[in-house]
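Figure 2 data, in text form.
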Amino acid sequence: MKKVCLITGVGPGTGSALVRRFAAGGYRVIMIARDAARLAAIEKDVTDAHAYPCDVANEAQLQATLEAIESAWGFPHILIHNAVAAARGEYLDIEPKAMDVAWRVNVMALMHLARWSSPAMIDRGEGAIVCTGNTAAYRGKAHFAGFAPTKAAQRILMESIARASGPKGIHAAFLAIDAVIDLEWTRKAFAGQPDDFFCKPEDIAENCFALAHQPRSAWTFDMVIRPFGETW
């Protein structure tokens, strides 16, 4: 029987690439995102990928979705929280409600997902929880006042999860992407930049797959990836 990998935030870039990589790696992939049409298209294109449209910011909706997944497929062996919400702007300008949505997507959804999936991983003595993030988790730039605090909290929550669950066999890790990801809209926004400027979604997915399969004698918690020319 195939192991199950659950991925949130299945968009046109990193999320879709993660689905394809883990499916190619032999997993049954459960996809969560708000865009039902996109999920349906991927479901048709990728063998053993299964769509569950859901807004992870809605706690009741998320809980109902997880119950449906559990009933159909059981608990995942790998959980990847890739969903993200951002409230960009300086602290005097951001809308508190937008920051609240970012908090619920980036932090509270991670908490609910980890609490739901961890007991089964502990019973098995193995499992992985990976959260994709960015360098906003390490620094609060002025125009990220509504976003960076939620990503910093997300990373610290992941660290708490790692410290608690690691000795029980769960590899919890934070994968920060310090880059402009190669998407149609980013190509337009950064027109004129060379290919090397962008981080390829399939390369992010490859790193994530490797991270989730590290031997337990050499686990990574913090992984930061960036294009070779990125200033940091």
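Caption note: The first strand starts at residue 4 and ends at 8.
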